[in-house]
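Field log, afternoon session.

UNIT: design team B
ACTIVITY: writing a sequence onto a fixed backbone
BACKBONE:
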């Protein structure tokens, strides 16, 4: 698929918008407008350019940010959910458990006890039932 330099610039604008505003909820129509392309073209070009689906990127960044906040702050799961763009703490907990294999509170406890090493990007490095890294979620085929 050929993607022009102008289209790449517009796709990067969309990527930065969602990465820098994790708490916001953008419709695919709005993002397509930012990219100056149709919805279907945005979805195809985004995946072709960045190797990940648009909403999979958003979910990845939200979970990464949540993991960082769990380790580096005393915010409640509800507060972290809001900061990361989840409307309810339960939605964050479900996504977090599906991705990491543990609940957000267990993740925080494991990190605090030293049983879970977390780097500055929020990536966990722990054998066992906690998945080795948040990047493991990128390998799944998420359809949004």
């Amino acid at each position: 698929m050929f993607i022009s330099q102008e289209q790449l610039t517009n796709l990067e604008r969309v990527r930065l918008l969602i990465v820098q505003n994790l708490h916001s909820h953008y419709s695919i129509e709005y993002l397509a407008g930012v990219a100056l392309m149709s919805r279907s073209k945005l979805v195809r070009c985004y995946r072709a350019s960045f190797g990940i689906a648009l909403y999979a990127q958003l979910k990845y960044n939200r979970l990464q940010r949540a993991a960082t906040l769990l380790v580096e702050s005393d915010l409640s799961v509800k507060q972290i959910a809001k900061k990361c763009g989840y409307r309810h703490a339960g939605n964050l907990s479900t996504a977090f458990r599906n991705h990491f294999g543990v609940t957000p509170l267990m993740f925080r406890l494991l990190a605090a006890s030293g049983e879970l090493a977390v780097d500055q990007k929020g990536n966990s490095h722990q054998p066992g039932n906690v998945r080795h890294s948040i990047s493991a979620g990128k390998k799944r085929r998420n359809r949004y």
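LOG NOTE: The mean pLDDT is 86.
NEXT ACTIVITY: expression trials, pending approval
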